[in-house]
Amino acid sequence: MMSHFAQRSIWLMLGLAAVWLGPGLARAAESDLAKCVPPSMTYDEAAALKSCTALLNDDKLPDGERVRILTLRGRSFKVENQSSAAISDFDAALALRPNDTGALVMRGWMAIDTKDTERASAIATQLLATDPANTEALHMLAFLAQARKDYRAELSYYNKVIALQPNNVLAHYNRMMFYKRWGYDRGVVAEADELLALKTSDLDTLWADLDGKRLSFRAQTRMEQALAWERMGQSEQAEKAFSDWVAAEPGPFSYGHRGVYYYNHEHFEQALADLDKAIAYDPNYGLSYFWRGNVLLLTHRDEDAVRAFTRALELNPKSGGSFWLRAMAERRLKRNDAALRDALMAIAIDPGTRMKKADTFVKLGYLDLGPQDMKNPLPALADAVQACMADERCW
User: Fold this and answer.
1) Does residue 52 fall inside a structural domain?
2) Which residues span the domain enclosing 30?
3) Residue 19, burial from CB neighbour count under 10 angstroms (0-12, 13-18, 19+)
4) Could you tell me if 42 and 204 are in contact, meaning their C-beta atoms sit under 8 angstroms apart?
């Protein structure tokens, strides 16, 4: 829930031109055309892939329309994390129309996504040769500058995009995240104000994944602004920002993040109330149960904490944190066998938990990793977990 998600390739959500099919296509294609659409907050990527594929199966499809549909299908493949299929579609589109702007843009972003910086740079250069004010190419150059750690250039490219397109949501958002990376939280707050004041539907139709869920850029901006106030220690402004988000967009994210804010500030009953509302909005969002379990554990409601972490693990079986925290509750309930199993599972599946606990075990004298343990430290860590079961400091 409190995840500090990294800047991601959010180009997928850009609304490129819609596909137009000529009257020569069969009427049966109309339903496929309606579903072969760009990614959006509400679209069904599986239905889009099926429909785009059905349209591409028409041998009489003109080249220009085929290029646009290949580009749309490629974007849906990317949403499904099928990078190779996405690249194949963009390359097929460019084989038909080497200078097609839409296909070039998407292929350039795929090159960035796969760390093919040479290809991405070449595509950005090609786009700018045709149009020196191509904001997609400038945005690519910003990401390439970030990759080579030229942060002044990165910021300058965001500024150029915004100068050309003052309502460009992604440029404002990425500039806000630039400020966040550099710890300039007042810049985050100011940029968020600018973003939320934009008169564009892109704030609500463009989206990116947060913890496996789609979240609009309006919601992400509200979240980042509230978190920035909290990082600055401005509790009154932070609580107001979270509450404004809840009032404007009640749902699992807004209630969940305000619940975590209350947890961090030891307002535990308010935290539980908000997390319960988050769960009511989305019973299948695992992080709400994870943070609910945290509140219950900290307030010594251990049976309830075990149930919360169990539900969190049903929804996210790879959460090492949930395993470890459930082990803490089980240990206090004197269920030592169950606690040991969960603790061992936590360090086995989660590198973050493993590193954190290894450091604790070393400091307490329960772990001394030798050269023979470097390739596989898990057996030594497992011994350390068992050895310190009775030591409160280990937990």
Assistant:
1) yes
2) 1-114
3) buried
4) no
